[in-house]
């Protein structure tokens, strides 16, 4: 680890320990949608009213509900029909995830490229997670999608820090080292601050524990397998591991050395990634 990376890591960890690290907040529309969805008496028209304040988000939700992912028999032409088809919880989770794209914006070219890279990976993992959860678990696909979208959310405060410290921004190697070391623990902090559902709050740290064993298949297992599948065929260190020894594959009933089933679902995974990206 470089001296710069070590110093920055120590500074950020100290800020975390003292609750001084400035964490990102969800976009306003996502906050309103989540607040509305948490009201047990909320009606579909009320939720539609909140979502419709963001025309782009409304259009994307209609696009998703008409996609092969949800296999709608009749074309959905308006937001009310879309919410009615997906349900309040599913809609809220999907709207939260789609709205998060607004957070991945930077004021410098260097950080902008990094944010695009992180968001691109996040949407890829989210798309794969959606399909894996639907076909290999009893978990909720919308929750799995959201888990995939937030698995690297801890990178955002590090990139915000880098934008204010030119020394780190000018040293990509050190920046990558800091991100790899501490983005998971920051991610857990963010999801706790956002009051995310308990099953998702530790996905940032747990999805990187490749020896992790739990009693039942959970969202961290799904995101872990999705991440590894997204890296298949690359020179990434995770792609060089023996996946046959990783418990999450067995928990999903997948043999990492046989990719026939994965090939059957590749079109569905690709569709999910394109919708989220």
From TrEMBL:
Matches recorded under Pfam families: HDOD
Transmembrane segments annotated in the record for this chain: none
Gene3D superfamilies named in the record: Hypothetical protein af1432
Residue ranges of coiled coil: none
Ranges of residues in domain HDOD: 23-210
SUPFAM superfamilies, per database record: HD-domain/PDEase-like (SSF109604)
Protein's name in the database: HDOD domain-containing protein
Taxonomic source organism: marine sediment metagenome
């Amino acid at each position: 680890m470089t001296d710069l990376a070590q110093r920055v890591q120590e500074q950020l960890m100290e800020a975390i320990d003292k609750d001084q690290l400035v964490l990102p907040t969800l976009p306003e529309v996502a906050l309103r949608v989540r607040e509305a969805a948490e009201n047990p008496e909320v009606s579909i028209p009320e939720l539609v009213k909140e979502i419709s304040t963001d025309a782009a988000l409304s259009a994307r939700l209609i696009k998703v509900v008409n996609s092969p992912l949800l296999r709608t028999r009749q074309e959905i032409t308006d937001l009310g029909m879309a919410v009615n088809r997906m349900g309040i919880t599913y809609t809220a989770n999907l709207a939260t995830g789609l709205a998060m794209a607004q957070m991945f914006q930077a004021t410098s070219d260097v950080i902008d490229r990094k944010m695009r890279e992180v968001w691109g990976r996040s949407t890829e993992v989210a798309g794969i997670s959606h399909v894996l959860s639907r076909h290999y678990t009893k978990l909720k696909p919308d929750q799995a999608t959201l888990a995939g979208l937030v698995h690297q959310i801890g990178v955002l405060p590090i990139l915000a820090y880098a934008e204010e410290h030119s020394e780190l921004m000018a040293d990509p190697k050190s920046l990558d080292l800091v991100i790899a070391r501490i983005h998971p623990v920051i991610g857990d902090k963010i999801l706790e601050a956002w009051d995310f559902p308990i099953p998702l709050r530790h996905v940032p740290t747990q999805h990187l524990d490749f020896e992790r064993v739990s009693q039942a298949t959970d969202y961290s297992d799904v995101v872990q397998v999705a991440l590894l599948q997204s890296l298949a065929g690359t020179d990434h260190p995770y792609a060089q591991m023996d996946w046959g020894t990783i418990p999450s594959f067995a928990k999903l009933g997948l043999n990492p050395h046989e990719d026939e089933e994965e090939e059957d679902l590749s079109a569905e995974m690709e569709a999910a990634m394109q919708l989220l990206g």
